[in-house]
Design goal:
The complex is a heterodimer of chains A (176) and B (235). With 176 residues, chain A is mainly α. Chain A contains 8 helices and 5 strands, in the order βααβααβααβαβα. In chain B, helix 1 (32-50) crosses helix 2 (52-64), helix 3 (69-76) packs across helix 4 (80-92) and helix 5 (125-132) packs antiparallel against helix 9 (191-200).
């Protein structure tokens, strides 16, 4: 499983908070699977502070575990100011509004910001590429559209959790 | 039965007509004998809502039945005495049918639905399943402790909309007024109730009239221990 993970150590992997909830608690097999995929690739997941928010509630135990185990870190990505990045967040917002049938101003700012953060991060860091992980379908579509429209498909890839650890729930889902 | 679809709000509630028109209740429905006839139904629901462990056994029999008490013990990891205690209660409440002509006895349960547009309340096996998950999932338990059953149902509705692509997890958080990370947690934790309910709750459409066939959820065929597909082929 670990060999066909679509990211490598020379890329920056930006992760939305929802990934940590899609993999479940640290005791969940999917949590362990995701952790090995990340560690085997030699990557540290970067969690922008503005997408994770406060790590206050007990539900954020799984994020804190990842931080303690040092396969995730919180980064203080600057707010998108670069023209391409700002435009990307606008496109993401429009796409999400369209996907969900909501007014644009009702789209959560944080859902739209990751697209801009990814582009700004790429331009400032000049790394080999940025990988964005999010397991929220409408939000993912927003980022994908923004990256495509701004011409960054060669350097920014967007994936969901299933692309990393497959979507076979196996024994990880207790039905009742 | 499906006339209220337009009033299902994105946050999981159903818009109530406020106040209900006077003719909702009439002399017929308020007759002491009618009220008395409906009393057991009310008590049944209160029992299930107050006892997630009992609701869990009911949902198991409803979805997996016919089953035997030893099968319940094994599947739900309950002791023999607890299993029989719950089964007896459910039989007394009229929720579970016990066929004593076979050994071991076979248990079945009809799915129940309660929709009250004025409160509003919608209770189906999927909702009871979500509630029952408290017994085995710490995330659901934490959410109900902190936010209560009403918000759990709102979160269930939000989760269904999310998996149908109609809302982001953060929008659900804002709609039901919980922290973003709490919404992300509960949306994922409620997946089993949606995945099983979609295939086995005949009233799933009452909860999700708009998106019942659009959800991107794990396929039960790939999950060990899922209930066998029922013989009714209309789904």
């Amino acid at each position: 499983m670990g060999t066909d993970v679509p990211f490598s150590a020379d890329q920056d992997v930006l992760v939305d908070a929802n990934i940590f909830f899609a993999i479940g608690r640290p005791s969940n097999p999917r949590y362990r699977q995701f952790r090995s995929a990340v560690q085997n690739a030699g990557v540290v997941c970067k969690l922008p502070r503005r997408v994770i928010g406060e790590l206050g509630g007990p539900e954020t135990d799984r994020v804190r575990t990842a931080l303690n185990e040092e396969w995730a870190e919180i980064i203080d990505a600057p707010p998108p100011t670069d023209g391409d990045a700002v435009a990307a967040s606008d496109i993401a917002r429009r796409t999400i509004a369209n996907e969900t049938g909501q007014a644009e101003h009702d789209v959560e700012k944080t859902d739209a910001i990751l697209a801009g953060l990814a582009i700004q991060y790429l331009r400032e860091r000049e790394t080999a590429g940025v990988v964005v992980l999010t397991d929220d379908k409408p939000a993912k579509k927003g980022i994908e559209n923004a990256v495509r429209a701004q011409g960054y498909t060669d350097t920014i890839a967007v994936y969901g959790l299933a692309d990393i650890i497959g979507d076979d729930p196996g024994d990880s889902m207790r039905l009742i | 039965m499906t006339a209220n679809h337009d009033r299902v709000r994105p946050d999981g509630g159903i818009d109530a007509l406020d106040p209900p028109p006077m003719d909702v209740m009439d002399e017929e429905t308020l007759k002491p004998e009618t009220l008395a006839q409906n009393a057991p139904r009310l008590e049944t629901v209160i029992q299930l809502l107050n006892h997630p462990a009992l609701a869990r056994v009911y949902v198991y029999v409803c979805y997996w039945g016919p089953v035997t008490p030893p099968e319940i013990m094994e599947a739900l990891d309950l002791s023999k005495s607890t299993t029989y205690e719950y089964v007896d209660q459910l039989v007394d409440l009229g929720l579970v049918d016990r066929d004593d002509s076979t050994r071991p006895q076979q248990l079945t349960a009809d799915p129940i639905i309660i929709v009250e547009q004025y409160v509003p309340i919608v209770i189906t096996p999927t909702v009871l399943h979500a509630l029952a998950l408290q017994e085995v999932d710490e995330d659901v338990e934490y959410f109900v402790d902190r936010h209560g059953l009403g918000k759990l149902i709102a979160a269930l509705r939000g989760a269904g909309l999310h998996f149908a692509g109609g809302t982001t997890q953060r929008m659900v958080a804002s709609d039901i007024d919980v922290r973003e990370t709490e919404a992300m947690m509960i949306i994922n934790a409620l997946k089993p109730a949606l995945a099983v309910g979609r295939d086995h709750d005949p009233f799933f459409e009452h909860l999700f009239p708009d998106v019942h066939d659009e959800m991107d959820l794990p396929n039960l065929d790939e999950i060990s221990g899922a209930p066998a597909n029922s013989s009714d082929s209309d789904r």
